[in-house]
């Protein structure tokens, strides 16, 4: 063996020697000298610095100065992390404790001087860059604002300014303008137009412009399931200035502060407001908003006859400006919530100081304490005024109605017109819903939702609706029977301590302009003879020529099933088209009030419209009469003044004059007068022993209204008449004229929300209806941690021939300050109404006692909950009306839970269970009832929301679940003729009888105008069925952690998969078992107990979802819908399984393979000929070639088979072979051109004209079919585009069909 060492051996020995030398070096020497890193090694990101500690302090705050960005999580000291405060970019180090307990009891702790080193070594890591380093593409010196004057050309090039067709500096524009034309050899020429433009900006330095302009003629009303509404159909232009504002278009008018004048109106017209002098904060209600003439003005409740309080808490002055942060009396800021009210109720407010419903709306003058101002002053800041004028056409009418509640039914409840109109449209955002005297908040997660088009109101699970619930709704509705004009003007003037105001309001229908009401000469003469009434009944039949598109009747003499006498009746259909034919309008008069009912035979149910059949006198619901509304006129003039005696006392006077014409055809009206005078003291300090911190509030006022006085809208409290134990005496056009006198006096002391005492006395005399006295007492006091509250209401009155003795009150106590806050409340309401001449003969009574217990968490607790239990016992007069007997007893449990389980989990639960035992009106006894003659009813109501994410969002879950008791509406539909090309269906007379039946209408499969001549519309009905509702919605997203994408083995494989699952069910059933009510999956569509169903099940499994080379998707979906109609049920079912594979074959080639199996099913219980179940298979390969970013070529092939497996046309089958080629040229920012040609070979077996045949063929014909299209989108300039489209189709055996379209659009 050679002794010569190889180079490798030498290097190995040198390396071992170096390692040995490093091991033998002393540790101290290594600390002084760090080894040099290799030249090619990356720089180390770890750094250490010495930090000096603060002298004589335990805590030291320090910052780390480095040229690179420090990673805060890496900062450590002796191996331990250091606390970091991002707000100050500082680190905090706390020395070991130097504070020790003193061995002597009662003496402070001993603090020793800080020991240890005066500095510590802090180590950290940095990023290889500095994130906070300023970066710029131009020298910063160019942005020096002090040198702009030396560079006059700088800034002239604004790179953010786009090329615009219409240049409007200072005004921001959004929207579009388009004009289009469509033509073809199988259709007429159609012209389309669309304008949607929003403007906002400044015309000048002092004039702001806001506008929303559109030419669409279809009104879209928002859905009433949110608190804030987005109104799509408002068109307006507003100009605002610090001194004035002008609005034209759709304007919302709200009254300014006035006692007698209240209104909320939507008009189409104009409004303006001018301010004089320097207005105070908020002015007389603030300024104008966009599209709103006086946006800041709200309705104020009324002090006279308020429902719960004794006196007002805030001065009845003008409203503060919107957004000023000030509290508006009686509106936005609620008083302290009643902790003793049942959980979940938005109301339940104990108002010992009368906050809210008793706030007066008299305009008064408030001044701060200090120098006494003169009576009349024109000095700056003491004299100001505002004048407003508005005029236009009113969109709706005001109505205020009571809704009769149903036991345990949340809704929907149908709103009706004041004259009995069954089907109305409620104007969006005009409704005010009151539940037991409390104003509710609209919203799916709040108190109620409303369908404005159907006028249906549904309450949320927050409120359990029982037969004892009081529901009142104020709203505006649209009927357009007559064109209604509206004129409004007001002036408010402040002169020192004196304030005066005047208002004029007039709304009137035009008898000669009735857009939706056709009146012949005879009907107009009838209206003139009817006098001053609000509605007139006229015959509903009209002799007309025969028209097969309408439901028409012939007239025959038939024996009356009720009396046996010959009677002239209307019979459907006409047998002889040359004989007398009638169009007949039927009116629902109520069960047993009419002679006709809806037809139920197959021919009548299948008719394209509603058919009525004669059943006998007073045996039906409908009558062939027409209710004619009359044109109305209302006018009100108000004048008021107030004078501030000092900073706390004010006297005021309000005067009003009204004019009412119920029927302008008769020109006979009524004039009335009203007056109110009073004195009010607000927040006057009390300097009496034991009352330090208390303030005095008192008021005295007198109101007089003449017998013919008629307000515009309701101006008194919503519970005003109920508190006097009488019916509605103000709202409506048919009330009996009465003279009225009301006197109010109140006094109280208030310190805060928990310490107050108040008393109020009210005397009311309404000739022949009400004569009584009310006493109100409210008190609140806090003793340590115990809060005590109570109120008492007493009434002694005579209402006509009845006497009312009413006592109502509440006493409550709550312990606060602990982890749990328990409480107890006792409520009673005992109203005995008896005949004055009969002594103890009880005519009616509202008589109950209620005990309530609750326990809740503190407001600051992380886990918020509340549990309530209440027991209520109701009594009612016996059959002899001599004494009271038990009507029912109810046990109610309610619980709420609001919890943030973690940073990624939220859980909200609301659950209510009510066990009611009520006396049965028929005397039957139900098993399990507490006593003979009683029935038992149990109610479940609840809502659960759970949102969570786990493991860094790899699992995301969203769950919403709700159960309640509601109602389901029977729906009806018909097909309405529209101009060619604007419809969705066409009619094919299958039986050649010349009459339109519902089974003869088919959905158009092509855009050809001759196949789009009808639309399907749902007809409103008033037939509701009680149902138990169950809503379930769940969304689950699963994916692998991101770290697994870089792992190996099974983790890398699983990371390629992800899934998305969605389950949505909304059903209503009549099954009363607990499992059926709580289980959302308890029913199938064929179950007769299932009234309606909307079901969606969808699951998608992804493989390589974000991989551009290869990926796959497997989707399984099922959609089911069941609708309750007047004729029966309609059920639709779609189930599909789809597999999609995609693969990038080369750099420019992409392949896709799509396979689908689907079943489309339609079932109708009344039109069995339209039932089918079509099974469909599809295979669709596709290859795309994209040589550049401009060109793309796509070839497709689609093979489809369809077969009907059920219904009248079993065995109908279709086979389709479709071959297509598409070319697309896309130049970004310039143009896009696409051309497509397809060949479709169709093999078909069956009846082509049947519904199944049309469903399978989809507008194609057996044999060879060709389709082609060419589209061009060209950008002419920035914001101006032109679109050209050409479509062609050549079915087998028919001539080619050509259609062309052109559209020019401008984008703002």
UniProtKB/TrEMBL annotation:
Keywords: Signal. Residues 1-31 form the signal peptide. Residues 322-367 are annotated as: Disordered. Residues 352-364 have a biased composition (Polar residues). Residues 331-343 have a biased composition (Low complexity). This is Cell surface protein SprA. It comes from Hymenobacter psychrophilus.
């Amino acid at each position: 063996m050679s002794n010569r060492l190889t180079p490798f051996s030498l290097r190995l020995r040198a390396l071992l020697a170096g390692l040995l030398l490093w091991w033998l070096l002393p540790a101290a020497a290594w600390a002084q000298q760090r080894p040099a890193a290799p030249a090619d090694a990356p720089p180390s990101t770890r750094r250490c610095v010495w930090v000096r500690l603060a002298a004589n302090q335990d805590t030291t705050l320090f910052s780390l100065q480095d040229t690179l960005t420090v990673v805060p999580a890496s900062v450590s000291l002796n191996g331990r992390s250091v606390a970091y405060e991002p707000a100050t970019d500082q680190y905090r180090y706390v020395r070991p404790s130097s504070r020790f307990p003193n061995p002597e009891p009662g003496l402070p702790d001993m603090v020793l001087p800080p020991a240890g080193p005066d500095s510590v070594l802090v180590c950290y890591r940095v990023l290889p860059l500095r994130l906070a380093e300023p970066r710029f593409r131009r020298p910063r010196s160019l942005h020096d604002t002090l040198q702009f004057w030396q560079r006059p050309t700088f800034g002239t090039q604004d790179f953010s300014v786009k090329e615009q067709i219409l240049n409007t500096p200072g005004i921001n524009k959004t929207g579009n303008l388009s004009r289009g034309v469509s033509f073809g050899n199988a259709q007429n020429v159609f012209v389309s137009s669309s304008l949607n433009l929003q403007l906002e900006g400044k015309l000048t330095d002092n004039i702001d412009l806001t506008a929303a302009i559109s030419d669409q003629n279809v009104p879209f009303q928002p859905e009433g399931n949110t608190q804030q509404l987005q109104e799509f159909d408002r068109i307006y232009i507003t100009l605002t200035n610090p001194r004035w504002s002008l609005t034209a278009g759709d304007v919302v008018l709200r009254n300014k502060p006035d006692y007698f004048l209240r209104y909320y109106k939507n008009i189409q017209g104009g409004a303006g407001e001018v301010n004089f002098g320097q207005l105070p904060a908020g002015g007389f209600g603030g300024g104008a908003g966009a599209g709103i003439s006086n946006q800041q003005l709200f309705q104020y409740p009324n002090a006279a006859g308020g429902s719960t309080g004794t006196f007002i808490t805030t001065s009845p002055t003008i409203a503060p400006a919107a957004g000023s942060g000030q509290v508006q009396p009686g509106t936005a800021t609620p008083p302290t919530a009643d902790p003793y009210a049942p959980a979940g109720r938005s109301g339940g407010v104990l108002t010992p100081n009368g906050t809210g419903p008793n706030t007066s709306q008299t305009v008064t003058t408030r001044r701060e304490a200090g120098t006494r101002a003169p009576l009349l002053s024109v000095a700056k800041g003491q004299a100001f005024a505002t004048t407003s004028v508005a005029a236009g056409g009113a969109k709706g009418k005001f109505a205020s109605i009571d809704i009769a509640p149903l036991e345990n039914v949340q809704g929907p409840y149908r709103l009706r017109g004041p004259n009995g109109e069954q089907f109305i449209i409620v104007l969006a955002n005009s409704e005010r819903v009151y539940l037991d005297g409390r104003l509710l908040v609209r919203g799916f997660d709040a108190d109620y939702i409303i369908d404005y088009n159907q006028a249906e109101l549904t309450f949320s699970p927050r409120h359990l609706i029982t037969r004892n619930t009081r529901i009142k709704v104020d709203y505006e509705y649209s009927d357009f029977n007559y064109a209604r004009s509206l004129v409004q003007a007001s002036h408010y003037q402040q002169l020192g301590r004196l304030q005066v105001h005047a208002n004029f309001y007039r709304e009137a229908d035009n008898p000669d302009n009735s857009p939706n009401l056709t009146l012949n000469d005879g009907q107009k003469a009838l209206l003139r003879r009817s006098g001053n009434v609000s509605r007139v009944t006229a015959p509903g039949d009209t002799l007309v020529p025969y028209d097969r598109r309408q439901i028409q009747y012939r007239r025959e003499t038939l024996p009356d099933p009720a009396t046996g006498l010959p009677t002239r009746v209307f019979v459907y259909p006409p047998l002889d088209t040359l004989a007398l034919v009638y169009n007949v309008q039927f009116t629902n008069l109520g069960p047993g009030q009419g002679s006709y009912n809806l037809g139920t035979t197959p021919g009548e149910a299948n008719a394209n419209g509603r058919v009525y059949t004669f059943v006998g006198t007073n045996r039906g619901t409908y009558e062939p009469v027409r209710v004619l509304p009359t044109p109305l006129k209302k006018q009100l003039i108000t004048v008021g003044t107030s004078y501030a005696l000092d900073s706390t006392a004010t006297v005021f006077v309000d005067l009003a004059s009204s004019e009412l014409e119920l029927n302008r055809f008769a020109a006979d009206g009524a004039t009335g007068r009203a007056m109110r005078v009073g004195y009010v003291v607000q927040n006057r300090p009390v300097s009496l022993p034991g009352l330090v911190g208390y303030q005095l509030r008192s008021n005295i006022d007198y109101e007089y209204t003449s017998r013919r006085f008629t307000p515009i809208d309701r101006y008194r409290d919503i519970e005003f008449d109920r508190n006097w134990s009488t019916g509605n005496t103000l709202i409506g056009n048919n009330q009996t004229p009465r003279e009225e006198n009301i006197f109010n006096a109140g006094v109280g002391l208030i310190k805060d929300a928990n310490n107050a005492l108040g008393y109020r006395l009210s005397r009311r005399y309404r000739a022949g209806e009400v004569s009584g006295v009310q006493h109100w007492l409210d008190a609140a006091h806090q003793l340590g941690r115990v809060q005590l509250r109570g109120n008492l209401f007493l009434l002694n009155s005579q209402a006509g021939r009845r006497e009312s003795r009413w006592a109502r009150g509440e006493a409550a106590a709550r312990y606060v300050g602990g982890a749990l806050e328990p409480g107890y409340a006792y409520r009673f309401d005992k109203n005995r109404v008896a005949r004055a001449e009969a002594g103890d003969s009880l005519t009616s009574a509202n008589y109950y006692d209620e005990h309530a217990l609750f326990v809740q968490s503190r407001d600051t607790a992380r886990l918020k909950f509340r549990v309530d239990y209440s027991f209520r016992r109701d009594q009612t007069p016996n059959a002899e009306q001599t004494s009271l007997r038990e009507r029912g007893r109810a046990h109610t449990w309610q619980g709420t839970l609001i919890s943030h389980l973690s940073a990624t989990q939220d859980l909200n639960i609301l659950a209510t269970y009510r066990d009611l035992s009520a006396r049965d009106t028929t005397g039957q006894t139900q098993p399990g009832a507490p006593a003979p003659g009683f029935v038992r009813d149990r109610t479940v109501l609840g809502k659960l929301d759970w949102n969570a994410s786990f493991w860094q969002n790899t699992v995301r879950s969203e769950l919403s679940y709700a159960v309640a008791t509601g109602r389901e509406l029977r729906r009806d539909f018909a097909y309405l003729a529209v101009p060619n090309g604007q419809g969705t269906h066409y009619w094919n007379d299958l039986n050649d009888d010349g009459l339109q039946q519902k089974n003869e209408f088919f959905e158009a499969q092509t855009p050809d105008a001759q196949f789009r001549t009808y639309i399907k519309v749902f007809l409103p009905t008033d037939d509701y069925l009680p149902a138990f509702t169950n809503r379930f919605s769940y969304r689950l997203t699963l994916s692998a952690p991101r770290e697994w994408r870089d792992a190996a083995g099974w983790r890398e494989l699983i990371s390629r998969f992800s899934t998305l699952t969605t389950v949505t069910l909304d059903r209503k059933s009549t099954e009363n078992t607990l499992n059926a009510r709580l289980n959302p999956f308890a029913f199938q569509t064929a179950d007769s107990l299932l009234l309606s169903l909307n079901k969606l099940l969808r699951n998608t499994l992804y493989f390589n979802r974000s991989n551009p080379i290869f990926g796959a998707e497997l989707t399984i979906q099922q959609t089911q819908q069941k609708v309750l109609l007047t004729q029966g049920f309609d059920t639709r079912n779609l189930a599909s399984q789809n597999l999609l594979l995609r693969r990038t074959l080369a750099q420019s080639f992409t392949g896709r393979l799509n396979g689908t199996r689907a079943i489309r099913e339609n079932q109708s219980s009344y039109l069995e000929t339209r039932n089918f179940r079509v099974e469909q298979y599809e295979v669709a390969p596709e290859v795309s070639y994209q040589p550049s970013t401009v060109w793309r070529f796509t070839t497709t092939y689609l093979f489809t088979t369809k077969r009907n497996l059920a219904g009248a046309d079993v065995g109908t089958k279709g086979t389709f072979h479709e071959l297509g080629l598409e070319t697309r040229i896309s130049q970004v920012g310039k143009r896009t051109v696409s051309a497509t040609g397809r060949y479709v070979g169709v093999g078909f077996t069956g009846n082509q004209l049947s519904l199944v045949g049309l469903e399978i063929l989809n507008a194609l014909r057996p044999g060879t079919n060709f389709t082609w299209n060419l589209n061009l989108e060209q950008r002419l300039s920035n914001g101006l585009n032109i679109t050209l489209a050409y479509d062609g189709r050549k079915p087998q055996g028919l001539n080619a069909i050509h259609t062309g379209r052109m559209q020019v659009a401008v984008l703002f």
